[in-house]
Write a structure and sequence with these properties.
520 residues; Alpha-Beta Plaits; TIM Barrel; five-stranded mixed β-sheet; 20 helices; elongated; binds ligand C2E; binds calcium ion
């Protein structure tokens, strides 16, 4: 569409043309008068008279003005074309990397799919996502993040055949559009791209290591379908640490929902939507509250308070568990500091997932957090499950020893649900066993469970471990635990998990309730 000139420009043009016309008329009239006065036709000779001369003169004038105007118009057209080209470039390219942007990619994909439907070459979409980009951005700053994205774009472009469509969708997501490639061919290109991402990137004097996950979708459906399928496959690749995954319908079954939650969870951690609640742990012998367990919830804007069972597994699968654990640790230690300032010395227990035990940077971060909150290491206890410690015993032991060396207490959570023997557990630097609530809840009615609890308490004590019973729901269970010599208890009958601000009152209330033996 021709852009219409603004009214101001039209007015200026009209004034100019009128001015030029007036100049032509005036000069032509003056020339006519001069021609008659000096009898120019006689001087020139030949078959001319005044009228012919005047006409010739006015034509000459108009030619001069016309030429000027046509030069201007030409220059204007060139300028406009350049401006339009620039605009079109900007509308189709990502300003940071110079690659095609999302809109241009969508167009190119639609064109390619149309051609494929008309018998042209088949289409494959590769969606690549960097695995550790956020970390780089958060810890080293946006300018390093930007440089890294440019370096990634450059390296990816170098891996592809000339003319291959490569786009950046935004953030750390890149898309490659392949023509005339079958699934194995597309997968090979994807593998090559991911391998290229694994080579360190020299950025800002540093060597940055980022990994990538790539989803591949081939043929079938609309361009939008292809892009969505590549996204689903990328998510599967990330979840299973595959590097590359090719879309198949089975991946779709629960993926759209999960995908949404993954993005949402990532945002929730970043935007501080996680809320930590605290459940008191009470000493059975004297009814004193010795600590609390930090239990995370997600305050979802639409779904309300989401329990951890609904998002911890996803966080564990996708690498979000590390920022999640860090966020919980930070909140728990902030609360611990606040309670101490109010005269309440409570140990805070924080749950670690299996993957945290493979995180060799964890101990350093814990040490930093303790320092930042001016808390002694004994203010923190970390709970691990026996199965977690069994996953990669060598590495887990190393991480646990580093934590223990800091002075942090360690406990084995959900004891009884895994397959580790007590003997194995004593090789871990742990001081406490938490008996799983499935045994405790039913011990009142089930003699077998009562026996398990009793023998666990005895065995643990003989190994020098403290025992906590979880899931104490009745006064009878509490009393039975006292008889068995269990050290501490946690459960709804004592107190439910609550926000940190409610803890001091709840502690006072528990102390009142449990002060005198059997006056409950
Ligand atoms: P867990 O570590 O075994 O935590 C105890 C769970 O039992 C909590 O559930 C708590 O609310 C519940 N509970 C406490 N007393 C009773 C009781 O008397 N009866 C019954 N039926 N349940 C009781 P919640 O808060 O839903 O947490 C579930 C699990 O989620 C936790 O089990 C833990 O494995 C995991 N989790 C919670 N917060 C975190 C976290 O910050 N990081 C990690 N990695 N896992 C977490
Ligand atoms: Ca726990
Ligand atoms: Ca537990």
């Amino acid at each position: 569409m021709e852009p219409s000139a603004p009214p101001g420009a039209v007015r200026a043009l009209r004034a100019r043309v009128l001015r030029e016309a007036a100049v032509v008329v005036l000069l032509t009239a003056a020339f006519g008068v001069a021609s008659v006065h000096w009898d120019l036709p006689a001087h020139l000779g030949g078959p001319v008279d005044d009228v012919v001369l005047v006409l010739a003169f006015s034509h000459l004038l108009m030619m001069v003005f016309g030429k000027r105007r046509s030069d201007e118009l030409k220059a204007e057209a060139v300028n406009r074309r350049e401006a339009e080209q620039q605009l079109r470039y900007r509308a189709q390219h990502d300003a940071l990397t110079g690659l095609l942007n999302r809109a241009a990619l969508a167009e190119a994909a639609e064109r390619a799919v149309e051609e494929a439907c008309a018998g042209g070459p088949s289409v494959a979409v590769l969606l690549l996502d960097l695995d550790r980009f956020k970390e780089v951005n958060d810890t080293l700053g946006h300018h390093v993040g930007d440089d890294l994205l440019r370096a990634v774009a450059h390296r990816l472009a170098g891996e592809l055949r000339e003319g291959t469509v490569l786009a950046r969708l935004g953030g750390d997501e890149f898309v490659v559009l392949l023509r005339g490639c079958d699934a194995p061919g597309a997968e090979e290109v994807a593998q090559r791209a991911v391998r290229a991402l694994r080579r360190p990137f020299p950025v800002d004097g540093l060597l940055l290591e980022v990994d990538g996950s790539c989803g591949v979708a081939v043929g079938g459906g609309t361009a939008a379908d292809l892009l969505r399928h590549a996204d689903v496959a990328m998510y599967a690749a990330k979840a299973d640490h595959l590097g590359v995954a090719v879309y198949r319908p089975a991946l779709d079954a629960d993926a759209p929902d999960q995908l949404r939650t993954f993005g949402e969870l990532r945002r929730a951690i970043r935007d501080g939507e996680l809320r930590v609640h605290y459940q008191p742990r009470v000493s059975v012998a004297d009814g004193r509250v010795t600590g609390v367990e930090a239990l995370v919830r997600w305050e979802h804007p639409e779904r309300g308070l989401v329990p951890p069972a609904e998002f911890i597994p996803l966080a564990e699968q996708t690498g979000l568990i590390r920022p999640l654990t860090d966020a919980v640790l930070d909140q728990a230690l902030t609360a611990g500091r606040r309670w101490r300032d109010a005269g309440l010395e409570l140990t805070v227990g924080v749950n670690l997932s299996a993957r945290s035990l493979l995180d060799t940077g964890l101990a350093d971060r814990v040490a930093e957090l303790l320092l930042a909150h001016a808390l002694p290491a004994t203010a923190l206890e970390l709970e691990i499950t026996e199965s977690a410690a069994m996953k990669d015993p060598g590495r887990a032991l190393e991480v646990l020893h580093r934590l223990r060396d800091l002075g942090v207490e360690l406990s084995v959570d959900d004891y009884g649900t895994g397959h580790a023997s007590l003997a194995y557990l004593t090789r871990l630097p742990v001081g406490t066993l938490k008996i799983d609530r499935s045994f405790v809840q039913t011990m009142e009615l089930d003699a077998a469970d009562r026996t398990i609890v009793r023998s666990t308490v005895d065995l643990a004590h003989s190994l020098g471990l403290q025992v906590v019973a979880e899931g104490v729901e009745t006064r009878a269970t509490w009393e039975e635990l006292a008889r068995l010599g269990c050290d501490s208890a946690q459960g709804y009958w004592l107190a439910r998990p609550m926000p940190d601000a409610d803890v001091p009152d709840a502690v006072a209330e528990l102390h009142r309730r449990l002060a005198a033996p059997h006056v409950v």
